[in-house]
Specification:
elongated, 9 strands, 295 residues, Nucleotidyltransferase, domain 5
Length: 295
């Protein structure tokens, strides 16, 4: 029995063949264009944004390594491999098995910040009032910034906090790309979206995992044990003064075990070991710093 090919089938086959040849011609042109661009670069490396790398990675995954090796590319899979190796990150299958939270932090150390709230009870004319203090810590330097003090940490307060933290001139998060936070409802969806619009990615800790934000938690413990837990505060102005004094002490007068028991900022005070020892007091002697007088 003879199979008869319908005219429409012939048309479909012819069209498919034409499309295949057309697509191949486009691919050949793009490959040749890449060769020309590589010749012009003369060995120089192209720099890509994170968004561009993601787009390339998505397309490359569909093709697979074998197909990529056959194409004249401006970027090779080895480029990605070298970057991962340089930062101590294993390939994806191994990374999923072994990468710890500590490794993730170290890889992004210089662009990582953390945030948290702590509460303080303050006596006012209305009685005892709870104040919420929002602070940000830059993990690499351990520097801390008090982002706001309020009795009502609502959406308006958080929105203004983002504006201040991402200000183009002196925002504390200008050099940060990630912000670690817990799942407190005060970090609203609008708050997180506002951060993303300023190129700061919110990193929310898993449920019941306080160790994921250990650096911020440690600061809360320090300021309460060393200062706030030993004082009775009257009115908001008193609270703000104490916070200001402690943060100054924290940055230039307090040793930090996490950075080799050093001061975060070295004061210009040391001269000779024969000079008398002086003491700088803050908050009536609550915080003390002993030093040698400068020549």
């Amino acid at each position: 029995m003879t199979n008869v090919i319908h005219p429409f089938q012939l048309l479909a086959i012819a069209l498919a063949g034409w499309l295949n040849r057309h697509q191949q011609a486009v691919i050949d042109y793009l490959i040749e264009e890449n060769r020309v661009l590589k010749d012009q670069l003369d060995g120089q490396c192209l720099r890509f944004t994170d968004e561009q790398r993601i787009r390339l990675a998505v397309k490359a995954k569909v093709l697979g390594r074998r197909a990529l090796d056959e194409i004249e590319l401006l970027v090779t899979p080895n480029t990605v491999k070298n970057i991962l190796k340089r930062h101590g990150i294993e390939p994806a299958p191994e990374r999923e098995k072994h990468t710890s939270w500590a490794t993730f932090l170290k890889v992004h150390w210089n662009v990582m910040a953390a945030t948290d709230f702590f509460t303080v009870e303050v006596w006012t004319l209305r009685g005892l009032v709870t104040y919420y203090v929002l602070f940000i810590m830059h993990l690499e330097t351990r520097s801390v910034h008090i982002a706001g003090v309020t009795t009502a940490p609502n959406g308006a307060f958080m929105k203004q906090a983002v504006r201040n933290l991402t200000d183009v001139e002196d925002g504390f998060l200008l050099n940060s790309e990630f912000l670690i936070m817990d799942r407190d409802k005060k970090y609203t969806k609008e708050f997180r979206s506002s951060l993303k619009r300023e190129d700061v990615t919110p990193v929310r800790c898993p449920v019941r995992a306080p160790n994921c934000n250990a650096f911020a938690e440690r600061f809360v413990r320090s300021i309460k044990d060393e200062c706030l837990g030993r004082m009775i505060l009257f009115e908001e102005v008193s609270l703000r003064r104490v916070l200001r004094e402690y943060v100054s002490h924290y940055h230039i007068e307090r040793n930090h075990q996490g950075v080799g028991n050093r001061l975060l900022k070295s004061p210009e005070i040391v001269s000779s070991i024969n000079d008398p020892v002086h003491c700088r007091e803050r908050l009536g002697g609550m915080l003390n710093f002993y030093y040698l007088e400068a020549a």
